[in-house]
Amino acid sequence: MATLEIRDLHVTVEADNATKEILKGVDLTVKQGETHAIMGPNGSGKSTLAYSLAGHPKYTITGGTVTLDGEDVIEMSVDERARAGLFLAMQYPVEVPGVSVSNFLRTSATAIRGEAPKLRTWVKEVKEAMERLNMDPAFAERNVNEGFSGGEKKRHEILQLELLKPKIAILDETDSGLDVDALRVVSEGVNRVRESGEVGTLLITHYTRILRYIKPDHVHVFAGGRIVESGGPELADKLENEGYEAYTKGGASE
Amino acid sequence: MADAQNAPVGSTTAGSIAVAAESTVATRMSAPPSFDVADFPVPHGREEEWRFTPLARLRGLHDGTATAAGDGVKVTVDAPEGVTVESVGREDARLGRAGKPVDRVAAQAYSAFEQATVVTVPKETVLTEPVRVQVAGQGGTCFAHTVVELGAFAEAVVVMDHSGDAVYAGNVEYVLGDGAKLTVVSVQDWDEKAVHAGQHNALVGRDATFKSVVVTFGGDVVRLHPRVEYAAPGGEAELFGLYFTDQGQHQEHRLFVDHNIPHCKSNVVYKGALQGEQAHAVWIGDVLIEAAAEGTDTYEMNRNLVLTDGARVDSVPNLEIETGEIVGAGHASATGRFDDEQLFYLMARGIPEYEARRLVVRGFFAELVQQIGVADIEERLLAKIDEELEAAVA
Q1: Which residues are in the SUF system FeS cluster assembly SufBD core domain (chain B) (predicted)?
Q2: Residue A77 and residue B363: Cβ atoms within 8 Å?
Q3: CB B176 within 8 A of CB B148
Q4: CB–CB of A6/A54 below 8 Å?
Q5: Could you say which of A55, A96, A108 has the minimum Cβ distance to residue B342?
């Protein structure tokens, strides 16, 4: 069973000619089949955690370990991490001019699966996945994220999640900027992948709204660059009622 | 192709649309067009037409110090049956009809060549195989002149392939009879030290169709002037270009479409990728719609993809309109970067770095490559793009 283990993770970022520590000792274990929600106020370091795990060059890991099934993730390049089974659905997916969605998806699937998917089954697979996400087939011929609306970008991220079937999926504020209908469609996509029981999900969010559609097994409160409280789904209800105030003042905050 | 809205991230546009009483395309040149090199002052580098060019690397083509020497180039013409290939003297009446040299180097070439090559496709002859002209540099300095003439309703594809090492100043004329269809592919695949300057003049007859594909990969300095004029109404010109500018290379394409005749069309699309320190691409796109040219339909576009730091693009579209009675006129220029965020996004989907670059560059060129219509050139081009990218990774 795939397990992502994060131990005492410290991460810095260079900003304004100064080195700033953003993550200050994160401990978390995500197993296949589990869904963890990470909730926290803006600026708490949630997205830094997501991008550090994916290997974004902006972030420097200064301490701690990250392993996937015992393999050292920190030593891996960005593409190696993806091929090892990590997937990051990005909050702000970037435009890639000149590369069509269909070409991109196929190249990606070929890299992740280790061989090119058979064309006939692949076309069907993509078409069906797009239908489930209420995506227009014409979408496949557009350039990656170019001119996409916020909702289209998120659907495209979840489309990739469904096609690439990672061991661990990190969803970075996938709910942000979505209206209720889009949120429902995107959440259903995530749930289809979860129902396979083969993915461990790390759901990073600011709001509890998405947790009405995607039920977490564990909820963690993130503040000041680390997890400050962990609990079951009831912790989300508490945050819904009380907000993050208790965590952003006093000892838990910076 | 109206995909100007597909401008890459970080695009910038530059240029101007002017409605002018008198064309500045001509007046901003330092001398009027002429066949005689003596009519042009030696450029010092600050002239409008020379300001982007590294004169010191032209190996004397611009100041008269370059003289024909060594073996120059070896020219081989492989023409299908029905095509006439001649080597003619300077006085031949068929030379110089498509336009005069517009700068000193082109005039130098015209003043210095000894024999010209004339390729003639007789009227109503439709070729099924391309005419292939190999210009193989032998390390020397060479001045050349080539004329390709298609009689009325003739159809031909001409591939001009430049390779090897040379200091080469060569002009080419394309003369299209009424209803003729000519596709010409000029490939600059020179060795890294070569210098190539030249002017390509097309004179497009009534209802004739001219398609030019300029592909520039190699050489130290390549500086070309693809130019079009119309002899009668109904002419169409498509000018396509692809360039891949590497570390230290200077590749300059200066286009001019002169809509001097009513009811003609032109479409210009040039795309370039750049990588490496001091890679420098220059694209000048001048389109002039003269007062007489009612019913003109024209569009020009230049797009550049900058793959690494240290590369530079100068892209200057310039559209001058002397009559408002036209079908359409537009231009666009966009230069985008393949940046770290794009690379991260593709790699985060399992795609290795080299493959990610290849995906982006191939995608960038794909629509243009498909327009060439000469299968072996298309394949060679894609292979060449891969080769360039591999060289950069290594």
Answers
A1: 137-364
A2: no
A3: no
A4: no
A5: A96
Length of chain A (residues): 254
The answer to whether residue A121 sits within a structural domain is: no
> Does the pLDDT of residue A254 top 50, yes or no?
no
Asked whether residue B393 carries a pLDDT value surpassing 80, the answer given is no
**Whether the predicted pLDDT of A242 surpasses 80:** yes
Residue-wise DSSP of chain A: --EEEEEEEEEEEEETTEEEEEEEEEEEEEETT-EEEEE--TTSSHHHHHHHHHT-TTEEEEEEEEEETTEESTTS-HHHHHHHTEEEE-SSPPPEEEEEHHHHHHHHHHHHHSSPPPHHHHHHHHHHHHHHTT--GGGGGSEETTT--HHHHHHHHHHHHHHH--SEEEEESTTTT--HHHHHHHHHHHHHHHHTT--EEEEEES-SGGGGTS--SEEEEEETTEEEEEESTHHHHHHHHHTTHHHHSGGG--
Residue A56's domain comprises 3-97+168-252
Pick the residue from chain A with its C-alpha nearest to B337: A97
ipTM of the complex: 0.95
Tokens of A143: 């350039």
Look at A160 and B336 and tell me if their CB atoms are within 8 Å.
no
Q: For the segment A26-60, what is each residue's pLDDT rounded down to a tens digit?
A: 999 999 999 999 999 988 999 999 999 999 999 99
Residue B342 and residue A94: Cβ atoms within 8 Å? yes
pLDDT of residue B71: 81
Looking up residue A92, the CATH number of its domain turns out to be 3.40.50.300
CA B103 to chain centre: 15
B5 touches chain A (CB under 8 A): yes
Give the pLDDT of residue B385.
85
Has residue B297 got a pLDDT over 80? yes
Q: Provide the residue ranges of all domains of chain B, joining segments of one domain with +.
A: 12-338
pLDDT of residue B7 exceeding 80, the answer is no
